[in-house]
Design brief:
Elements: E1 15-21, H1 29-40, E2 44-50, H2 54-64, E3 68-71, E4 85-86, H3 88-93, E5 98-102, E6 105-109, H4 112-121, E7 130-134, H5 138-149, E8 153-158, H6 161-171, E9 174-177, E10 188-191, E11 216-219, H7 228-235, E12 239-241, H8 243-259, H9 265-280
Parallel strand pairs: 1-2, 1-3, 4-6, 7-8, 7-10, 8-9, 10-11, 11-12
Antiparallel strand pairs: 3-5, 5-6
The structure holds 2'-monophosphoadenosine-5'-diphosphate.
2'-monophosphoadenosine-5'-diphosphate binds near residues 135, 137, 139 and 159.
Length: about 280
């Protein structure tokens, strides 16, 4: 799919940015960041690089002076050992998805936690709210640390005990088995599992009975944009936060780190939604 935009200005001062991952063919980051660069007059170009040799790629960032990178599957953990500095939040989460090249010093951050929090805070306060995070994988870790840092009262809800309890112990919060979860007493519910993602769009991670009016329900899945969980939540009188909001806000955090400029969040969101809509045609 070719997304039509004006050609960016490219000259000898153009800064280079990239997403490093495998696969990266479907990444929405290039179109989102390039639109943001153009809108704000930042002289940069963002490309997708299919990377299997991570140490070689990081050496390449240094050698070529690439200004900033996004890091995605499967490199988010391994990249930490190749950088000069890792931000304390990213270290706690145990994953880096953002590299900033500060005059040759490669610094790692995690924008997933702050991105998810920004998306949630647009719709609801978190402090002292009871928050159920469904899942205990990498996405759950980023989000759960963000919730805890913002003073939310967290419960990890997971299908299996081992992983769920480990994350809950690390965060010193409650744990609940998914099959025992009722939703009673919770203000915010966040799905961090892939349940409901294409092709299994008829699935949802909790029963309808768990969704109560007044709750805020967030899904990190953005394909489809309105998952079965979110449409059920809307019908149940909940406020909903879709996965594109989190994706865009994590990108906005990266943009700000790289450029020092205010990210054009609404334009970034409109652009991502347009690309997703075109992909579905
Ligand atoms: P990521 O790092 O992208 O978050 P992950 O590490 O594979 O992905 O984590 C997937 C999470 O989704 C896990 O918490 C998993 O539960 P288990 O720990 O019990 O495996 C959860 N998950 C995946 N499929 C699920 C399903 N069908 N129902 C409920 N939970 C599911």
């Amino acid at each position: 799919m070719v997304f039509k935009t004006d050609m960016p200005r490219i000259d000898s001062n153009t800064r280079l940015y990239a997403v490093l991952g495998s696969p990266v063919g479907h990444s929405l980051s290039p179109v989102m960041h390039n639109v943001a660069f153009r809108q704000t007059g930042h002289n940069g170009v963002y490309v997708a690089l299919h990377v299997t040799d991570l140490p070689g790629a990081v050496a390449g960032i240094r050698a070529l002076g690439i200004h900033g990178c996004s890091v995605t599957i499967p490199h988010k953990v391994a990249v930490m050992g190749l950088l000069d500095h890792v931000d304390p939040m990213a270290r706690r989460i145990g994953a880096v998805n953002t590299i900033v090249n500060e005059a040759g010093r490669l610094c790692g951050f995690n924008s997933d936690g702050p991105g998810a929090m920004a998306a949630l805070l647009e719709k609801t306060p978190v402090v002292r709210r009871r928050v159920a995070v469904i899942g205990a994988g990498g996405a759950a870790r980023s989000l759960a640390h963000g919730i805890a840092d913002h003073g939310g009262q967290l419960t990890i809800v997971n299908r299996s005990q081992g992983r769920g309890r480990r994350l809950a112990d690390e965060l010193k919060c409650d744990f609940c088995l998914l099959e025992d979860f009722s939703g009673v007493g919770y203000d915010i519910l966040i799905n961090t599992t892939s349940v409901g993602m294409v092709p299994d769009t008829d699935q949802m991670p909790v029963t309808h009975a768990c969704l109560r009016p007044g709750m805020t329900v967030m899904d990190i899945v953005y394909n489809p944009l309105e998952t079965r969980l979110l449409s059920a939540a809307r019908r149940a009188g909940c406020t909903v936060v879709d996965g594109v909001a989190m994706f865009v806000h994590q990108g906005a955090f990266q943009f700000e780190r790289w450029t020092g400029k205010q990210p054009p969040v609404q334009l970034m969101r409109r652009t991502v939604l347009e690309v997703l809509a075109n992909q579905r045609r």
